[in-house]
Amino acid sequence: MKNATVAFGAFLVAAASAPWSASADELSMRMYGHQVAIARDAKDMLDLTVDGRTVVRDAVVAIDETAVVGGVPVLIGERGQGGNACDTQRFVVALPTDAKAGARPRIDGPIETCDSTTYRVLADSIVVERPPSPSGEGKRWTWTPDRGFSKVEVIPFVPSDRSGWAALRAHALDHPGKLFGYADLAGLIRDRLPQGVRDQIPELLKGPGQVRYDGDVAVAFVCRSHACDESGMLIALDSSARKISIAFKAEGGGAAFVAPPFGRWPAEAAEEIAHFRDVYREDR
Known about the structure:
Elements: E1 27-31, E2 34-40, E3 46-50, E4 53-58, E5 60-69, E6 72-80, E7 89-94, E8 106-108, E9 118-121, E10 126-130, E11 138-144, E12 148-149, E13 153-155, H1 164-169, H2 183-192, H3 195-198, H4 201-204, E14 209-214, E15 217-223, E16 232-238, E17 243-249, E18 257-259, H5 270-280
Antiparallel strand pairs: 1-2, 2-3, 3-4, 5-6, 6-7, 7-8, 9-10, 10-11, 11-12, 11-13, 14-15, 15-16, 16-17, 17-18
């Protein structure tokens, strides 16, 4: 969504489908007996209107889908300020079912999160989720016609796949964060680290990183986003011996945690060890 100003999903209109056309910045059509439009104004903002009333106004406005939820016709969309700071945020517009003139649409949202979300339309609700990942817990919001969006629910991340060593042998992982998506690897890595250091892993995994392969050895490095010279983690994983070596420079200063000492690490990690020592001034 970040690279598109307006996106149009499959419009499931109550009436029979009719041909329509829209430019990248505008839409005008009847939906469930209401005139719905998206138009750009003189200030280069987009207005989503229902029967002439503005219900959403932002730099980025999109309708992803229409549906009937619990007997109520709804527009499911997303909005945002543009740029790369945050992804677009989801909203729901419930269209009036009251036949009386002047009945107003109801707008719920946008959901307060900068992260990408997915959604599912059920018979009586819409479930919006930010999936959990090694870099953080997930979140879930449930929309119903009577209550709008519920309070956020936390979804813990619990890896269950135990084929991490096989994924390493296949050279299938390209970022250290993906190591923690496998229960066998995540458990070994966390068990080697002190508790205080483990707590910093999710935030660290949001930063830049890479995995380099040299035969049976994978060497992974990741550092804190926007503070790479302050905190980072280096891991060497030997898939043939099933051994893990790890170095972690925690945020807040102090010596790095290194296990085992660098002299006992696989020779294939020599280049990354030199870089880690240079950046974090680690002499062990």
